Every structure is written in C-alpha cells, then in structure tokens.
C-alpha cells in the first residue's frame, strides 16, 4: 500500500456562488494527488506520455461530499494506492482542510493506452518497478 | 419518471492535452442537464436560491466514461429523474455525441438546505408540485 | 466588416464567491464568439486544425469589465471582425445580458501556425475566401 | 515598488488540445499572484472580504502571450505593484517557466467595493498600512 499527500489552496476561480469549491473541481484535486504520488516515486506522468507513449484515460470517477471546501482553504490531498496496477489502476483520495476535517472522499479508476497503437495495455514497467516495494 | 435533454458543444477551453473533454468537466454537463430539466418544468434553480432561499449542495457524484468526447462535439445531455425527490434528489445522466454514441453515464445526488437556518429540509413544494404529474 | 452573435448561459460552475461570472471566464466567451462566427461562415475551426493543419494561438487578450454577469444570465456574445486577417486576426467582442446591458468588451488577437512546420503563416485561403465578401 | 513571486504547476485540467495552458487560465495565475502577494504582507484577501466587507472586482485585464506554457511546467508567477493603491490597484505579472523563459506578461486593474453599501471606496487602510513601506 502506498499513501502520499500534497497540498492545494482553494482559489477564487474555483469557488461558486455558494462560496464553496465547485463540486466538479474535486476531479482536478484527484489529478493533482495522483500525479504528485507518481512524482514522489521519482518518475513523472509527463515522461509516461511523452517518452513511453502511454496515456491514462479515466474509466470511473466517484466522489462523496461531506463538508464544503471554502475559499482560501489550504487542502491536504491524501492519495492511496491499495493494490499494484494491472490493466487498471485505482487511486483513492481523501481531502482534508487546514483544521484536519475530512471534506471529501473519492476514487478514480484509470486504464493504460499505447498511443502508437491506440490499444489498451498493462501498466508499464516504468511505473510498476517503482511501485513494487510498497506491495 | 421524467426525461429531458439539452445540448452543449465541447469548447477548446474544455479539451485537454489528449484532445478529449477533460474528465472533470462532466460534472458541469450534469449541472447543465439538471438545471435545464428544472427550467423545462417552468421554474428555475435561480428562483429556488434567490426567492425560496433553498440551495442544493451535492452529496455524491458518479461518472462512468465509455468513449471520449472531443473538441467541437455537439453533445446531447439526457437527464432522467426516476423518483420524486424527498430529502434528496438523484439525477441520472447520459451523454451522447452527434453520432448518437453513448460517451458517458453518471449520477448526481443532491440534498436541500434552507439558507436561512443552514439546516437540511425536504424538497420544496415549488419543485415537487411541478414534478407530481410525472410520477 | 463582419458581425455575428451567439448565446451562452452562465452556469454555477462559472460563478465565483461574489456570485459573478469569474473574470477569467470571459476568455472562454470570446472563444465561443469567434468559433461560432467561423461556423456561421459555413466552415469550422476544427477543420482548419484537423485538415489544414493550421492552428491559431492567441497573441494578446484585452478585457474591460463594466458590470458583472450573474448566475443564469443568458449572455449575448457579439463578435466583430473589422478587417480581413493577414498574418494576424483580431476579433472584438461585446457581452450583453438578457436586459441588453453591455457587461464587458474585449479583443483577442491571434496568429496562424502551420502545425507541420511549426512556423507562422498567413491566414489560410480556406478562411479568407469566405470572409472576402464582407470587406 | 513591491515584487513577490510564487509557483504553480500546469495541470492536465488546464491544458488544451494544443497541449498548451489554455489562454483563459492566465487570469487564474494572476489571481494566485496577487493573493499570494497580499499573504506575503501578512494579511489575506479573505480577511478583507469576510471581516472588512471590502471586495475587489476586476476592471481591466490585459495578457500578452510570448511562448506557450505546457503540461507539468512549473511556472514562476512574478507579481509587481508599481504604485500605492488609491481608488484602484494595478498588479503587473510575468510568468516564467522552469527554464526561466518569459512566457507571458499581464496587468490586472481592480477597484474596491464596500459590500455593505455596494459603493466604490478607496483601498482599505488594512492593506495600505502594510504597503506603505515599499513606496
């Protein structure tokens, strides 16, 4: 199991008329969470796309909203990988505010596409080799 | 059961590096779907907020991605209400492109807040009265 | 001179904590304006990119805000082309609400890139031929 | 004169079909720049809104695009205040990538509204007192 965290401040651009972080922006928080988890492994998603020609479209997204995030909140994005990726990879996320209140939980399931053939492939060894020791 | 539809073109602003509609923007399509369903009833969400002081935060969001929406696609957003709202309301959505291919399915569950007391309330009669005949 | 118009409703996603359309979203309204002007000519920006391999990056953006656009406003986007494009093209925009109040004015200057060579080129004849009669 | 800097990574959500940071997102970078400049003074824009009931709508935005920002670029947002605010405040911005290339320059002019009266006011002393020593 691998668990990482990173931070993101809520900007005016992301608030809505209720004064909350708009419900659609959590998908972006999850993107930040998974790309920073990958960076923490010493690799980048950018390298996967540009060099390995593997991209990761999303198959499924689930969000559960417990409390609103508000303007200027300094959010902690916790990202959890429970299992080694196979043909798919599932990231779990928990969003906390600066008072350590759990605001939101979500999961994102993605798959791997070889951009040269446009076919589904397994998780590249570039990623799996780095993950091995956590499982 | 109530089923309505409306249309939305994919803009450059909404595409990502893959050339797809970014996965987080489907939440906005669902927002368009549910607010246009309410408008089709002859009422508006704006009136609910401004006059009745009832707002509808989101409790849960689920998206399943089947095929990517692409730049300039003219999307058909189908919105379905299977049940009369109670303390909650659940909208189902299906997104089709101009070739009538099903790209995405999702559900959004919302609840009702009285903005004066900040307490949860049941669906306002302003909305329920209009929905009654469909169930 | 060519002048076209199209419409866009302000969505919750686009409002901010002040209850206004966020100031950064006007760039998207201008994008809608210029792409719909091109569509009104019987051609599409999508075709320019995909078939002619010509893309149009933005060189300059200017926005002047007079009155805020608000949630659910039904905006009229007026797009004006004062001159035939050369190496550059400049669109002027005016944004009105449903009460015909002028909310915002802006200009966007773009240039043309040949995607095969990554070099700047003149406006393609695909576009100029359609524009000729208006100037 | 006051000059501060902060950093922002370009996310997938913010890229477009060209693989560039969408031209409309620079307004958000400028928002980050000015709110972090204010935070660096030891005060917050949030406090101005919530406690002083003063908000700052935008009057004018200007952006000049020199080179595209790309996915995963680690942008440096330089924010410059050339003059003490009066009835208005003008922030200048320069955006650099991780190779210290200047990508974009812009200015944002804002004014001050007393939220209780909805009237224009001068810059609050809460802000001016902190700025005095830089001019």
Plain-language structure description:
The structure is a homotetramer of 135-residue chains. The first copy, chain A, has 135 residues and is α+β, with helices and mostly antiparallel strands. Chain A has one domain: Hotdog Thioesterase (Thiol Ester Dehydrase, Chain A, Roll), CATH 3.10.129. Chain A is built from 3 helices and 7 strands; from the N terminus they run βααββββββα. Chain A has helices spanning 26-40, 45-50, 125-131, and strands spanning 2-9, 54-55, 58-65, 74-81, 88-96, 102-114, 119-121. In chain A, strands 1, 2, 3, 4, 5, 6 and 7 form a 7-stranded antiparallel β-sheet that branches. In chain A, a hairpin with a 4-residue loop joins β6 (102-114) and β7 (119-121). Chain A is elongated. The mean pLDDT of chain A is 97. The A-B interface holds A 17-18, 20, 22-28, 31, 49, 55, 57-65, 68 and B 17-18, 20, 22-28, 31, 49, 55, 57-65, 68.
- Number of E strands of chain A: 7
Distance between the first and last residues' Cα of chain A: 6 Å
Unreliable stretches of chain A (pLDDT < 50, length at least 5) are: none
**Helical proportion of chain A?**
10-25%
The H-level CATH homologous superfamily of chain A, spelled out, is Hotdog Thioesterase
Structural class category of chain A: alpha+beta
DSSP strand (E) fraction of chain A?
35-45%
The CATH topology name of chain A reads Thiol Ester Dehydrase, Chain A
Shape of chain A: elongated
What is the arithmetic mean of pLDDT of chain A?
Answer: 97
User: Please, how many helices of chain A?
Assistant: 3
Give me the CATH architecture of chain A, please: Roll
**Radius of gyration of chain A from CA coordinates:** 16 Å
- State the oligomer: homotetramer
- Number of domains as seen in the coordinates of chain A: 1
Question: What letter string, H or E per element, gives the SSE order of chain A?
Answer: EHHEEEEEEH
């Amino acid at each position: 199991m691998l668990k990482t965290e990173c931070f993101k401040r809520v900007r005016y651009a992301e608030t809505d008329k209720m004064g909350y972080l708009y419900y659609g922006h959590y998908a972006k928080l999850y993107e930040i969470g998974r790309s920073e988890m990958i960076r923490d492994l010493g690799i980048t998603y950018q390298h996967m796309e540009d060099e390995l020609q593997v991209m990761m479209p999303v198959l499924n997204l689930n969000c559960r909203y417990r409390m609103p995030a508000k303007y200027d909140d300094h959010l902690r994005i916790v990202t959890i990988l429970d299992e080694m990726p196979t043909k798919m990879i599932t990231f779990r996320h928990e969003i906390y505010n600066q008072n350590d209140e759990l605001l939101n939980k979500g999961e994102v399931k993605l798959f791997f596409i070889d951009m040269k053939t446009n076919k589904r492939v397994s998780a590249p060894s570039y990623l799996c080799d780095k993950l091995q020791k956590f499982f």
